[in-house]
Amino acid sequence: MTTSTIAIIILIGVFLALIIARIPVPIALIASTALSMIYLEIPLMTMVQQMAKSINSFSLMAVPFFILAGEIMGAGGISDKMVDFANAIVGRFRGGLACVNCLDSMFFGGISGSAVADVSSLGSIVIPMMEKSGYDKDFSIALTVTTSCQGVLIPPSHNMIFFALAAGGVSVGKLFLGGAIPGVMLGFALMIYSLIVAHKRNYPKGEALGLREVVRITIDAMVALFTAVIIMGGVTLGFFTATESAAIACIYAFLISVFLYKKLKIRDLPRILANVVNTLCLSFSLIAAAGAFGYVLAYLKVPALLTNLLLSITDNRVVLLLLINVMLLFLGCIMDMAPIIFIVTPILLPVVTQLGMDTVHFGVMMIFNLAIGLCTPPVGSALFVGCAVGKSSIERVVKELLPMYGVMIACLLLVTFVPALSTFLPNLIMP
User: What's the whole-model pTM score?
Assistant: First the structure.
């Protein structure tokens, strides 16, 4: 075997072995990178330099602000407004609360950009409401978990920023716009499935609200939803960057949470900031470690090798995209989203580029694919949080999730093979 082949085996083999041994992903990435560099006689200082280079990015400055905005909104009563607004729209129908679950995740995802924040904040409200109204607990939890995945697709999404950084030179605004239609499509697909299940199981109808109450709830919700308008309007119209829009969104969310809704107290800020720091420590350590790992992958020409390997199997575009989706679905089951984005994007991007696939289209397809991994054992963070919030076992919830996986995969295939779903809005608004 050649030196490069042995180095690739060390790099990938050690990483997979450490992951199987349940070693934290950043440590696994650093250890495998260091060992392969030692074998290749590359100075370890290069690894440190690549780690620093990976997080030395202006685009990444938006991430802490988006996370902070999500935490403020979760603690500031905005999740309550989203649930009330969704209930005012669709709550009166049979299975209305299930539709509320889908719709409020769509609204909240357009503000927080986080599936886990969606599950933890909205789940604590909607799951007890559904259970009290006669819905099966496990169905309620499963639906909350799957609908939360809209949060990583509907803008803003810090995972889109991660992809833009990993892909290099991709517009964050275009990626935000690219995820909007697929995210909404997923929400409506789950809503249709929920209505079918509701009629089959004879779940109850909700109460119809009076016009005055609907108007009051709508006005309250519009104030919160204006956060998304600030972010998307500012970025797509060129008023400010994603980082600046995220900072303005934080200020706006703080003001309405403290002075309008009056749910957020100043004494809550230390806890909120601590949560933000914990999340950032994990995210940025992953980004730094993945940057060094990606450097060695590029040094060993792994992206070119994988491109040649896949094209040697078949040159059929449909088959190749199906193979890529299966690979990403598998990785999403065993790893968190952020490291996959930073490790796999530089490897697969040359493959899809050779197929003539638009980078924004590929980014949305990848994020959608990995969003499914948030709902799958053994490392699905949204699934774990949903089971903890709903107080049920993963085994019972997964049984209810199985048909929902089918709905999500059907939507993923549409996103994969209908490029316009991802590229129409970016090409229309940011040509």
Answer: 0.80
